[in-house]
Each structure stands twice: as structure tokens, then as C-alpha cells.
């Protein structure tokens, strides 16, 4: 059988692992080692030449194992498996989603460059862009879901660094309101502002909310797809990790900076994520089925004012419906809703939950609920929060793999307390 034609979920238990190299163990062991023994000094020299880019790897040559900051079997096999979902050339796994994101931003931006980014972005990303990148002289410019391509172009044209646009960074669907951004439109914008093939504008997409199953940014022309692997990829609320995927060309640079920042994931994290990948598809599919049941129940509840869920887009909103149809293969397992009232009512609901846990994070086997305005998005300017409908009455829900009837029963008793 031709394995290259198989679906990713069929390969998650075996791809990239050779049992005969590990005493026949059916599962990849944890290679809990900092360094690797070279057979000869000549071999060590050859491995370093390739690892440090002093020469290209030969046709049949494998990248030799040197030291766990550069490479480790748990990390390499995991990275190979991750590429299958997004159809990427290569992947790099990090010790957190933030380290994946910050490494890409630092490698592809330099002082004087302009970064264009979508609003809202994850709180940590928002902070890194506004308070860390700017400290290094990088100019930043945010745009909102309501801005058309013409609006965005006008904003760039009015910016003093308009000739130095270097990257467009988008998070879609946007957390917590599920606003969608058009990846192909961002790619077209990047082409338009690229000065040459060498001096071009890169497009990076944080795909944590939808990936790696339901949205594939690289297929729409993006250069990077970024993940907090803490979320769906890890999926059990027991590990912090991140990933970046892209072409060999860009990933070579990402991995090089990772080597020198030293923010790669360790072997145990790699092993945990490989274990998680085996059930990724069944988990995510079940979560999406549950989310649909929950959303359909919430929307008819008298104490719920509005439900934000990709499976219930306003039919009059042609732009969102069109992006959804082109970019997403499922409505996913994230939803938000406005409780009738304000913070007091939202808190009463959250405090009454019994099965659903009151916690930030998302994409895990257990359902999680939180209050964006005072928790995940507390650091976002009040004015921007108002503009984006991140109000005091908004509750965010990440739906897990529990029985949907039990989830609904929990929401029902908690809403009764409001
Ligand atoms: C959680 C999250 C991050 C940050 O990831 P960590 O693993 O917590 O560092 C980035 N982007 C999105 C969309 C997230 O949900």
C-alpha cells in the first residue's frame, strides 16, 4: 500500500518511527537524553556540518543526532507527523505556543519593519506585539474584522513605514467572538506589498482555534501556520507546547533561531504530543458534535441573548459566510454567548457550573468556561474590547468530549441560578 496516499489519522501511530531502532518497542520511547554518542569523530564532524548549514544534506543522508537542543527523536518524529495534517514541508515544535509565535516574529522582522496584525489576537501575542516588538523598533499596525481590503490599504498607505511592510499576522477565527479573517485576501495584500521575491511580505496564521483539522492556512497561500499545541493538539490540559509549520525554506530559519534561543520542546513534551496526536481526529470530531448540540440548545434559552458559533452565522453576513465556506471544514468546538445582564449574571453562571470547569485554555477533553473581559482579554484596551463585542456579559465555552446531555444539564442548572 502507498502510505503517502493515506489519511493522517491512519499514520499517527507509526509515521516516522522505526521499531527496530528501539528494541522493537511498538511505541516510540521517551529519549530522555541531553546528548548522543557519535560512532566516530568524522561522523560528529559531518553531523555538525549539516546542522550548522555549512553544507547541504546529501541525498541519502539523515540529519545525525547531536544534542537535544538541536534534535531529539521524540521531537523529530512528532514534527514529521505534524506536517501531515497541514501538508507542510516541515514543522518545529516549541516549549509553548508563545515561544513558537515569538520566534517567528523575531526571525522575520527587524528594526524599522512594519507588522500588520488582526485584532483581536491572543492576549500573550497582543502583549508581545505591542510591548516587546516595539521595544526593538518594529512598527506595528492592527486591523479589525470590519475593515475591508481598501480600509487596510488606506491604513498602510497612511503609515510612515508603509514601504517596510514585512509581515501580516492573523488569528482566525478570532478569539473569543469567532470573527473570521480572509487568509487569501491577506496573501494577496502581502504579494501587493512585496518589493521582490527576496524582500517579500510573509503571512503568518495562528490556527489554534481550528487546527490542525478544520482549517489549513498553507493551502490558502500563507507562509506559516502557528499553533498553541497546548490546545487541541495536546488536548488533555496536561502540557504546554507550540508548533510552527511551513516550507523548507522558511522553516530552516525558524529552526536555526530556535537552536540559539533554546526554546525547543523537551523529549517528554514530544512524547506526550505524539500520544495526543493518535486521538486528535476522534477527539476533535466528537467535540465539534457536542458543540453543535450545546449551541443549538443555548440559542433557544431565554437567559441567553446571543450565541457566537460558526455553525450559526448570520445569513445576512455574506462576507463571513463566504470566508467560512472557503476556509473552514467544521464549525469547531468553540463558542461564546452573551448572558442577559452583565458581569454579575455571567459570574453567577460560571460559579454554578459543576461538570464544566471554570478555567482558561481550550480544545481539551474536558469542557472549560471563562469570562474573556476579566480573564483572557483583561489586558486588551477597554475601547478595543467594546468595539469587538468582548463585553461583561460574554462567556466563552470550549466544548469537550463529555456526553452532550450531561453538558446541557450542567448549563441548564447553572443558567437557572442567573
Ligand atoms: C493559548 C494560545 C496561544 C499561546 O499558547 P501557549 O501554549 O499558552 O503559549 C496563542 N494563540 C492562541 C490562539 C491561543 O489560544
Helix content: 25-40%
SS field, number of helical segments = 14
Tell me the series of helices and strands, N- to C-terminal: HHHEHEHEHEHEEEHHHEHEHEEHEH
CATH-defined superfamily of the largest domain: Type I PLP-dependent aspartate aminotransferase-like (Major domain)
- The third-level CATH topology of the largest domain is Aspartate Aminotransferase, domain 2
The small-molecule ligands in this entry are: pyridoxal-5'-phosphate
Report the CATH C-level class of the largest domain: Alpha Beta
Mean pLDDT: 95
- SS class: alpha/beta
Shape: globular
- How many β-strand stretches? 12
For the record, give the distance between the C-alpha atoms at the N and C termini, rounded to a whole number. 58 Å
Specify Rg, calculated over alpha carbons. 22 Å
Would you identify the regions where 5 or more consecutive residues have pLDDT less than 50? Answer: none
Strand content: 5-15%
CATH architecture grouping of the largest domain: 3-Layer(aba) Sandwich
The biggest beta sheet is recorded as:
7 strands, mixed
Q: How many separate domains?
A: 2
**Strand arrangement, largest sheet?**
1-7-6-5-4-2-3
Amino acid at each position: 500500500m502507498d502510505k503517502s496516499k493515506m489519511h493522517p489519522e491512519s499514520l499517527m501511530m507509526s509515521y516516522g518511527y522505526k521499531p527496530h531502532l528501539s528494541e522493537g518497542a511498538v511505541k516510540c520511547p521517551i529519549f530522555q537524553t541531553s546528548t548522543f554518542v557519535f560512532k566516530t569523530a568524522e561522523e560528529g564532524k559531518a553531523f555538525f556540518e549539516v546542522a550548522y548549514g555549512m553544507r547541504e544534506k546529501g541525498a541519502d543522508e539523515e540529519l545525525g543526532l547531536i544534542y537535544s537542543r538541536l534534535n531529539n527523536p521524540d521531537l523529530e518524529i512528532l514534527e514529521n507527523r505534524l506536517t501531515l495534517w497541514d501538508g507542510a514541508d516541515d514543522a518545529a515544535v516549541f516549549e509553548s505556543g508563545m515561544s513558537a509565535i515569538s520566534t517567528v516574529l523575531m526571525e522575520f522582522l527587524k528594526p524599522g519593519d512594519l507588522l500588520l496584525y488582526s485584532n483581536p489576537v491572543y492576549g500573550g501575542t497582543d502583549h508581545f506585539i505591542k510591548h516587546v516588538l516595539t521595544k526593538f523598533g518594529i512598527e506595528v499596525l492592527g486591523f479589525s474584522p470590519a475593515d475591508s481590503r481598501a480600509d487596510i490599504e488606506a491604513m498602510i498607505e497612511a503609515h510612515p513605514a508603509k514601504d517596510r511592510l514585512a509581515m501580516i499576522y492573523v488569528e482566525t477565527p478570532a478569539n473569543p467572538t469567532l470573527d473570521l479573517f480572509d487568509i487569501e485576501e491577506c496573501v494577496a495584500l502581502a504579494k501587493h506589498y512585496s518589493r521582490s521575491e527576496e524582500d517579500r511580505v510573509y503571512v503568518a496564521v495562528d490556527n489554534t482555534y481550528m487546527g490542525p483539522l478544520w482549517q489549513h492556512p498553507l493551502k490558502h497561500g500563507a507562509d506559516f501556520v502557528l499553533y498553541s499545541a497546548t490546545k487541541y493538539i495536546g488536548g488533555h490540559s496536561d502540557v504546554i507546547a507550540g508548533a510552527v509549520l511551513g516550507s523548507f525554506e522558511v522553516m530552516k530559519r525558524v529552526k536555526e533561531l530556535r537552536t540559539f534561543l533554546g526554546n525547543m520542546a523537551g523529549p517528554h513534551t514530544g512524547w506526550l504530543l505524539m500520544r495526543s496526536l493518535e486521538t486528535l481526529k476522534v477527539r476533535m470530531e466528537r467535540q465539534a458534535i457536542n458543540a453543535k448540540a450545546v449551541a443549538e440548545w443555548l440559542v433557544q434559552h431565554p437567559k441567553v441573548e446571543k450565541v457566537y458559533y460558526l455553525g450559526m452565522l448570520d445569513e445576512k453576513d455574506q462576507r463571513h459566510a463566504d470566508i467560512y465556506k472557503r476556509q473552514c471544514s467544521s464549525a469547531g468546538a468553540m463558542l461564546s454567548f452573551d448572558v442577559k445582564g452583565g458581569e454579575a449574571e455571567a459570574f453567577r453562571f460560571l460559579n454554578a457550573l459543576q461538570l464544566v470547569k471554570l478555567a482558561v485554555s481550550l480544545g481539551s477533553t474536558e469542557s472549560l468556561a471563562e469570562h474573556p473581559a476579566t480573564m483572557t482579554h483583561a489586558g486588551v484596551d477597554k475601547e478595543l474590547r467594546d468595539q469587538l463585542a468582548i463585553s461583561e456579559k460574554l462567556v466563552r465555552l470550549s466544548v469537550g468530549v463529555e456526553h452532550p446531555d450531561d453538558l446541557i444539564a450542567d448549563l441548564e442548572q447553572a443558567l437557572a441560578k442567573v
